[in-house]
Structures are given as C-alpha cells and as structure tokens.
Write a structure and sequence with these properties.
With about 110 residues, the chain is α+β, with helices and mostly antiparallel strands. The protein has two helices and four strands, in the order βαβββα. Strands 1-2-3-4 form a four-stranded mixed β-sheet, covered by helices on one side.
C-alpha cells in the first residue's frame, strides 16, 4: 500500500481485524485509481434512541485537485454490522473514483 491511511473510530472500539479490512479495501481503491494521495476512513456509531444503533462509514480520499467524500448511512438494518457498512461505503467510493478517473482520462 502506497497511500497513507488514517482510521478514526467514533463511539466504536478499535479493532485490529477491522483495521486490516479497511487497509485491504484501500488497497483495492488504489487498484481503481493509483494516483490517490491519502485516505481517511471514519467508522462511527452515532448515538441513537433505537435499540440497535447503525454504523456509518465515511471515506475522505485525496486525489490530485480534489477530495472525494463518501458517507454511507443506512435507515435499514444492514448497517447494524460494521463490515456491511464498510463494504457499502467502499463500493460507493470505488464508483466515485472510477468516475473521477474517467473524467481525468477525457481531459
């Protein structure tokens, strides 16, 4: 992995397994667009009055000339699992990186 990754946990216990999974996902993003300069991933479990709180995952990806922000929250129960929230957010980040890469190629 060439890109420096910063991982922030908010109201979630830090996990080595989750750190490893995040770094793996960022490596996959690098395969999509190898000119990333940094990546900041925030995992949070916002305070909620519901019995089960939902996780949200945010990606802040710096690329030349732009910062791509991805935030995925879910009103359904899919994001009661942090790994599913990470997967959904990663997929959105990958789509945005692909779109950005395509725009760069067309210029």
């Amino acid at each position: 992995m060439k890109v420096p990754v910063q991982i922030t946990y908010r109201d979630v216990d830090q996990s080595d397994a989750l750190d490893e999974r995040i770094r793996f996902k960022v490596e996959k993003l690098e395969e999509t667009f190898d000119r990333m300069t940094s990546c900041h991933v925030v995992i949070e479990k916002p305070h909620s009055s519901h019995a089960r709180a939902q996780y949200s995952v945010h990606f802040g990806i710096n690329v030349p000339g732009k910062e791509i922000m991805v935030k995925r929250d879910s009103a359904d129960h899919a994001h009661e699992d942090v790994y599913i929230a990470l997967k959904n957010s990663f997929q959105a980040a990958r789509r945005q990186l692909k779109d950005y890469a395509e725009k760069m190629r067309n210029h």
